[in-house]
Amino acid sequence: MPPRGEAQETRTRLLDAAEIVVSNHGFGGASLREITEKAGVNVALVKYHFGSKDGLVEAMMLRRIQPLDARRLALLDAVEAATPHGALRLEDVLEALIRPPVEVGLSGTEEAKRFLRLIGRVFAEPPVVMNLMGRHLAPMMKRFDTAFARALPGREDHDQAWRKVACMGVVQHSLLMMAMMQDLPFPLAALRGPAPKPETVIRRLIAFCAAGMRAEVGEEGELA
Length: 224
Known about the structure:
Layout: H1 4-29, H2 32-39, H3 44-50, H4 53-82, H5 90-105, H6 110-124, H7 127-151, H8 157-179, H9 198-214
Helix pairs in contact: 1-2, 1-4, 1-6, 3-4, 4-5, 4-7, 5-8, 5-9, 6-8, 8-9
């Protein structure tokens, strides 16, 4: 068994290498050989630290997702503590959901760019990848389900769920577009220019999502 410090360093190198390879090639296209070569270790150490390639990929995603969701829940805790009874303010709930990924994704670091590519990969890969992440995201999303029900009481669960999914999609897609803004073709070239500050992006996304969450839709699907 390697010394604890050496083992932790090896584990970190494998996670970093996996993040780079998966963000470039996707989950299915990520070669264990390429990952271990980039990390400078042998394949046997993947089994020692993570059990398998799937275990390595899961640990790699959780390393980014768990701090993000902890931040979301801390913000939601503050919102609920400020209003222990009655309806929550929708914009406050949305901010708790939206602020953490925007702050991380627009921090400008190489890790942030990889983070955005990884999130994009999750939505583009076969459902097994999303299901893997879903097991870890479920407790956080249940908390937000309850918060949204308090912010918009009276809506059916099915309708509420669709609106929440749409909001999360808007946030994820917007972050990906901003990450590749300088390479976008016409007509999106109109969006080029100085990158907006994270706070500006957060406010825009909250306003957009709040309007969508509140929109009244008739029985046949028409906007009221």
